[in-house]
Amino acid sequence: MRDVPCNLLTGFLGSGKTTLLRQVMERGLGDARVAIVMNEIGDIGIDGRVFDGLESVERMVELSSGCVCCSIDEYAFGTAYQELLETARPDLVIIETTGVAEPGPILARLGGMGVPCDAVITVVDAVGFEALAAREPVLELQVRAADFLVISKVDLVSRDTARLLEEQLARFNPRARRLRAVHGDVPGGLLFGAGLARPSSPRGARPAYGAGSAHTHGAIESFSFTSERGLDPDAFGSFLETLPEPIYRAKGLFLPAGEEAPRLFQFTCGRWELRAVPRLRGAVRGTRAVFIGRAIGRVEQAVKADLSLCLEPTPTKKDGCEP
To answer: What is the pTM of this model?
Structure first.
């Protein structure tokens, strides 16, 4: 296998991984040819669409319906990775993990394939980290595995909150370099520069992970919703305000009736946003959405029923003879 540096981008659901990567790739990494592997826990790939049309992205591969650290077949992943290297000939591969992935098993898998991991970048949500970390042990594992810790959404918290979070992260992982980010604005060359030297300050070795590392996502589940009809934006906004607590994350694309540009929606632990995506004009029809959370099977049918009420009416054909 070609000796191509690989970066692992991880972080919990809704922490801002894709936003960060999109910002970096919009600016590009010099002349580097970059291939991105996007691993999503749902059975519909959403995040990969935000990289459509970017010249700096040589190739995009989406791995849906499973986590590469535990549920995607090792042979299939290795074969797909080798094919990616041979066809795209990248200078750098960036793997964005699912929000519930443990980095350790992925690093072990890459090591077994002879793939050099240049850096592990973990994105931490400054708003929701403390509460989520108390319930989801994987957040601490993601922090401990990091070479770089990117603290996102710092504009939404006070200086004292940001400072206390940095102190907590330093206790979990004193060797990692911490960077603050607003809307994913970070120095891409530092995080993703292929072949760049690590910072000169002593940071210690990355923890070793054996091939037999145990891993489970517990009751983290996902379900999807699709329709050939678009959504009414006002009704959909009200729907997002009332999503039940077990749903941590939701994302999707829909085309409002009478509009040409689809809208991307993002929901993270009670916060949500809708924005138009003009570059996907003509490429999206209807509605595609994924919902992720803990033990959400019990609310799936209710959520889908409520979301169906937000769909645009089905066009009706008028009967009668022509005048």
So the answer is: 0.71
